[in-house]
């Protein structure tokens, strides 16, 4: 069984890749953006992209077309997942800090990830999204998925899925996510550790002091005071995070397009 080729088939393959990318990429995948807007934006990008793709398909077996649709779906998912894994470093840093200062007992719904997140993690995530939008990082994300058609054509295969290069690179992204997330939280983690030691010494020397009533507000106060001094360093780490994220998207295109 064959299907007559037309621009509609090209549009279908392009739409599958772009729409699957929108499902996993940071900012666009958040639940604060309605699904109809995501679909409409994917349709507009697909129409614009089909007009510049010079890859005519005259006839196609149905079985191969299904495989190509699955391939396009995988390419879009993996490309957005690489960016989302690294972007999750911000949420990880906030979760580590909330665990130390006691904010982990209070959680807020995070529409970006669709899960409950702690207060500091939500705050850091909002700052990261604002910086990404202010520096036109969302334009680079869109440019990344559009550039993927130059590396991975509609009719090409992705051998990196079978030889393990793709899974190895995703594991490297997870490793970088943990490293950057810990770097974001390290100054406050060290400070709060020193505060815990000092408060522990005070509790041993002054046993009459009500530890559970005094120590939590003190740790929260020191946490926010330190935040004023380390906020410039956080923005620098966001710069490193975004450079790593865009570089990883470029690397994953080279791996899948090789």
Automatic annotation (TrEMBL):
<feature type="transmembrane region" description="Helical">
    <location>
        <begin position="35"/>
        <end position="53"/>
    </location>
</feature>
<keyword id="KW-0969">Cilium</keyword>
<keyword id="KW-0975">Bacterial flagellum</keyword>
<keyword id="KW-0282">Flagellum</keyword>
<feature type="transmembrane region" description="Helical">
    <location>
        <begin position="220"/>
        <end position="238"/>
    </location>
</feature>
<comment type="function">
    <text>Role in flagellar biosynthesis.</text>
</comment>
<feature type="transmembrane region" description="Helical">
    <location>
        <begin position="65"/>
        <end position="89"/>
    </location>
</feature>
<feature type="transmembrane region" description="Helical">
    <location>
        <begin position="177"/>
        <end position="199"/>
    </location>
</feature>
<keyword id="KW-1133">Transmembrane helix</keyword>
<feature type="transmembrane region" description="Helical">
    <location>
        <begin position="7"/>
        <end position="29"/>
    </location>
</feature>
<keyword id="KW-0812">Transmembrane</keyword>
<keyword id="KW-0966">Cell projection</keyword>
<keyword id="KW-0472">Membrane</keyword>
<dbReference type="InterPro" id="IPR006303">
    <property type="entry name" value="FliR"/>
</dbReference>
<feature type="transmembrane region" description="Helical">
    <location>
        <begin position="126"/>
        <end position="149"/>
    </location>
</feature>
<dbReference type="Pfam" id="PF01311">
    <property type="entry name" value="Bac_export_1"/>
</dbReference>
<dbReference type="InterPro" id="IPR002010">
    <property type="entry name" value="T3SS_IM_R"/>
</dbReference>
<comment type="similarity">
    <text>Belongs to the FliR/MopE/SpaR family.</text>
</comment>
<keyword id="KW-1003">Cell membrane</keyword>
<protein>
    <recommendedName>
        <fullName>Flagellar biosynthetic protein FliR</fullName>
    </recommendedName>
</protein>
């Amino acid at each position: 069984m064959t299907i007559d080729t037309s621009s509609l088939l090209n549009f279908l393959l392009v739409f599958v890749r772009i729409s699957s990318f929108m499902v996993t990429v940071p900012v666009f995948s958040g639940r604060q953006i309605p699904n109809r807007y995501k679909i409409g934006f994917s349709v507009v990008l697909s129409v614009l992209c089909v007009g510049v793709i010079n890859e005519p398909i005259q006839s196609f077996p149905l079985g191969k077309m299904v495989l190509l649709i699955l391939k396009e779906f995988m390419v879009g998912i993996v490309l957005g997942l690489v960016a989302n894994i690294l972007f999750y470093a911000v949420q990880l840093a906030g979760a580590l800090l909330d665990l130390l200062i006691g904010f982990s007992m209070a959680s807020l719904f995070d529409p970006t990830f669709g899960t409950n997140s702690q207060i500091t993690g939500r705050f850091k995530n909002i700052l990261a999204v604002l910086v990404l939008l202010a520096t036109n990082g969302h334009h680079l994300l869109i440019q990344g998925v559009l550039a993927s058609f130059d590396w991975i054509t509609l009719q090409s295969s992705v051998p990196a899925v079978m030889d393990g290069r793709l899974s190895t690179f995703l594991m490297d992204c997870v490793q970088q996510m943990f490293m950057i997330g810990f770097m974001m939280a390290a100054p406050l983690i060290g400070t709060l550790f020193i505060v815990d030691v000092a408060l522990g010494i005070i509790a041993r020397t002054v046993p009459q002091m009500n530890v559970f009533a005094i120590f939590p507000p003190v740790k929260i106060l020191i946490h926010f005071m330190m935040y004023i001094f380390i906020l410039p360093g956080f923005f620098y780490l966001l710069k490193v995070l975004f450079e790593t994220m865009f570089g990883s998207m470029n690397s994953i295109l080279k791996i899948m397009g090789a």
